Amino acid sequence: MYTFSSKLKTFSFVLMIVGILGIGYGFLTAPKTVQDVEKILKDEEAHHEGGHETAGHEGSTHEVIVHEATVNKEEVMTTHDTIAKDTLAVASVPVAEAHAEKGESHEVGVKYEEAVKHAEHKEHVEHVFHQLQNKPWAALYVACIFFLLITMGVLAFYAIQQVAQAGWSPVLFRVMQGITAYLPVISIIFFVILLLSGFHLNHLFVWMKEGVTDPTSPNYDEIIAGKSGYLNFAFWISRAAIFLLGWNVYRYLSRKNCLAQDEANDDVFYKKNFKMSAAFLVFFIVSESIMAWDWIMSLDPHWFSTLFGWYVFASFFVSGITVIQMVTIYLKSKGYLENVNSSHIHDLSKFMFGISVFWTYLWFSQFMLIWYANIPEEVTYFKTRIEVYNLPFFGAFFMNFVFPILLLINTDFKRIFWIVVMGGIVILAGHYIDFFNMIMPATVGDRWFIGIPEIAALLFFAGLFIFVVFSALTKAPLVPKRNPFIEESKHFHY
User: Fold this and answer.
1) Tens digit of pLDDT for each residue in 244-259?
2) Region 35-51: what's the mean pLDDT?
3) What is the 3-state secondary structure (H, E, C) of the chain?
4) Tens of pLDDT, residues 376-417
């Protein structure tokens, strides 16, 4: 039986406390009023214009010269009028009236331009206000969905092993079950965040904005209105509830059957798990695609990609396998999992390598097809990310493809613990950046940076993950006793 060390438990609590404090700081420092945003924008404008003071002085001098020239011109015209006043006496009244009308028209035009500029400025300030208010929410959302989907990646991998009747992996089943124990906890937190979005406590989902489907509203959006049959809160939150409930029911029943199999005299519970896992994978394939549309792609409701469900799956699937590897290596280093050998580590490393290549294929396919077609409503997704998120966008590519290729393509390296751990850390960081790239441009726009709220949210969910997962590992033996393939798994060598 595994014993949860006091040091690791304390470490998990420290992460959670620091994370909560950082998350709270993010919400407290977010602007509360539009006036706060105006002050921020003025400070930014002053900072940007600080280097143009000389040009400003030159402009002032130019204005003085122009003013003097205007005065001289007026003096000349006055002199001319004095000389010719007798000649122009008759026409003076109509001309004065014409000038008055012209002056009035000019004044109206100036006022109109000022009104337009004021309206544009007000709209811009409100937009930035929503972006900055979204920032702590978006940081929380990215970290939460990242850890939720990591857990789902582990659950999907576990179900695949059950259906494939794999002989190499049963010694790792309890590790996978321990990780998926995080699913109920993170599901509740995530569902609450979705509810808060629907109750307009944040502005993460643009299509939830009031009046967006009402043709008489100034917030009306024709494209979103056309999707309102699918993108409406009642239907959307119902789908979320069904998906989260379905995933958690499978996790609970599968774990229950696996533990019951340890005490059984036949393989009846193993067979139940086999059938249930096959049914779950069908449900998972459908729900995963819809989940990707609902929870990530709908943040950009004008944009869509038919590859997006697969792309999101590849990202969290490789992350889930990487977490299995990391937890396994940690337990192995502490003297547990004596039946896990370098061949098991090697096979998990192969999955890390292979799915990283698969993710890259989908990353490039989605990018290349959309960029080459150059359809405005599609290409804007990548245009924003390349221009505003250049470093994280291309950084994720190097972290999730180039680095794993260079590190894990070597067969011997796949068995060396410290190399695998280093690769795993980069892969997990890279796929967090990947989710960051998917979510942040639609929620905070150009107001992004990885600061205290983002790091704090990661620390909180990481601390909660460690506490829940390693607590779950203490509840049952780390090796399933009566799995039909357990002996094959114990003696697996490659």
Assistant:
1) 999 999 999 999 999 9
2) 75
3) CCCCCHHHHHHHHHHHHHHHHHHHHHHHHCCCCHHHHHHHHHHHHHHHHHHHHHHHHHHHHHHHHHHHHHHHHHHHHHHHHHHCHHHHCCCHHHHHHHHHHHHHHHHHHHHHHHHHHHHHHHHHHHHHHHHHHHHHHHHHHHHHHHHHHHHHHHHHHHHHHHHHCCCCCHHHHHHHHHHHCHHHHHHHHHHHHHHHHHCCCCCCCHHHCCCCCCCCCCCCCHHHHHCCCCCCHHHHHHHHHHHHHHHHHHHHHHHHHHHHHHHCCCCHHHHHHHHHHHHHHHHHHHHHHHHHHHHCHHHCCCCCCCCHHHHHHHHHHHHHHHHHHHHHHHHHHCCCCCCCCHHHHHHHHHHHHHHHHHHHHHHHHHHHHHHHHCCHHHHHHHHHHHHHCHHHHHHHHHHHHHHHHHHHCCCCHHHCHHHHHHHHHHHHHHHHHHHHHHHHHHHCCCCCCCCHHHHHHHHHHHHHHHHHHHHHHHHCCCCCCCCCCHHHHHCCCC
4) 888 999 999 999 999 999 999 999 999 898 889 988 999 999
Whether the model clears a pTM of 0.90, i.e. scores above it, the answer is: no
